Amino acid sequence: MPRAGLSTAAVVSAALDVVDEQGVEGLTLAAVASRTGVAAPSLYKHVAGLAELRALVGVRVMVEMTERFTAVVIGRSGDDAVAALLRSYREYVREYPARYAAFPADPLHDPAMVDAGNRMMEVFLGMLRGYGLTDSAAIHATRCARSIAHGFASIEASGGFGLGEDPDETYERLIAMFLASLRS
After folding, report:
1. What angle do CA 77, 59, 152 make, to 5 degrees?
2. pTM of the entire structure?
């Protein structure tokens, strides 16, 4: 019988705590079992194994990010919405760098992640409709936005901006460049 209160969602939450403390490489069934107070075999009542747990962690990260992005773009449009989303993306990575490392590279081609990936994609696509971007133009713009946010935030999280200039200013310049490209 599973420990009272232990569920798949609770296992994933414990896994996220492990990732936050030890990084993605520290995510093991033993570490999650220790955190939840059960023996590792007991986790199999909630997840099929480490691969499924990693997928569920990736989905949870996408859901968290999508919720944040949705919250910051609601009531905004155009440049204001795009800038808010890009800032929110960077802030998530700054707040949860290890957790962000669990973000899947290509969630739209993984059956376990496609729903969460599509929900996130819809936030981006919806935001870009205000620029008249549809179909492949919207996909290209979404890729550009993700590349800007992911690339900058990942480099920043790994300590890659050691020069004296303010990274905030650099990021704002990237946002301005992207916004200019959307308007052209």
Report:
1. 55
2. 0.91
